[in-house]
Design goal:
Number of strands: 0
Oligomer: single chain
Shape: elongated
């Protein structure tokens, strides 16, 4: 059991060490070469777009709960019992899917949530390097 927790902790450390965004947030961008900083900016842009897409998708799933409730009222007025039970069962399913999706996205894209800060750090470092290069 002790070995399991140790392996889990080691895996967590490796994941965080391989996350460039988290490294830049923690230690800055001085250690990275210029071409790699440009590549990280492109990677950050793509990851931010993915995060925004997945968030929209999760919120659409969560928002569909109101649609299921509206259909339930419609089926009640039509005395359609199967439809009532189906729509009532879909309400908790969509709420659970929304919650699980939201937690998963926040865990997977933890460092991308601070994309504005990471981008600011990288741009400031690139500007500093450009100014230093113009002196010579």
């Amino acid at each position: 059991m002790k070995n399991f927790f140790l392996n889990r902790q080691i895996n967590k450390i490796e994941r965080e060490a391989n996350d460039d965004f988290l490294q830049i947030l923690s230690f800055g961008a001085r250690c990275y070469p210029t071409n790699e900083l440009h590549a990280i900016l492109r990677k950050l842009d793509k990851a931010s777009q993915k995060l925004a897409y997945y968030r929209r998708l999760v919120f659409l799933i969560g928002g569909s709960t109101t649609l299921w409730i509206a259909f339930c009222f419609l089926f009640q007025s039509l005395d359609f019992t199967v439809g009532i039970y189906f729509t009532l069962s879909m309400v908790p399913v969509t709420l659970i899917a929304f919650s699980v999706g939201h937690i998963y996205i926040n865990r997977k894209y933890k460092s991308v949530r601070n994309a504005v800060t990471v981008e600011k750090i990288i741009v400031e470092e690139l500007d500093r390097r450009r100014k230093d290069a113009s002196i010579f």
